[in-house]
Amino acid sequence: LQAGRARVRAAYTWTDARFVRSGTADSAAVDGNRVPGIAPHRGAVSLWVEGWRGAFAAAEVRAQSATRVSDRDAALRSPGHALLDVRGGLPA
Q1: pTM, 2 dp
Q2: CA-to-CA distance for 20 and 42, rounded, in angstroms?
Q3: Is the dihedral of CA 25, 22, 14, 61 positive or negative?
């Protein structure tokens, strides 16, 4: 979305990455479990504003949900997190 000298962008991703049945006895313990290291939910929103004589300000927030870290133990997770990035500049 862009209006005048401002731009807003947003994105969201949902990923349902799971192990599928492979037919071996060893894999039966992970069938249907989420794949470790892949966050199911990720999102980002950014705002960019251009001002007088080339000055600018921008902010972006990125976030993701908790992520499994083991293919067999559903309780082992890294926590979800969010990151805020703020920046600005003046012309030289």
Answers
A1: 0.74
A2: 23
A3: positive
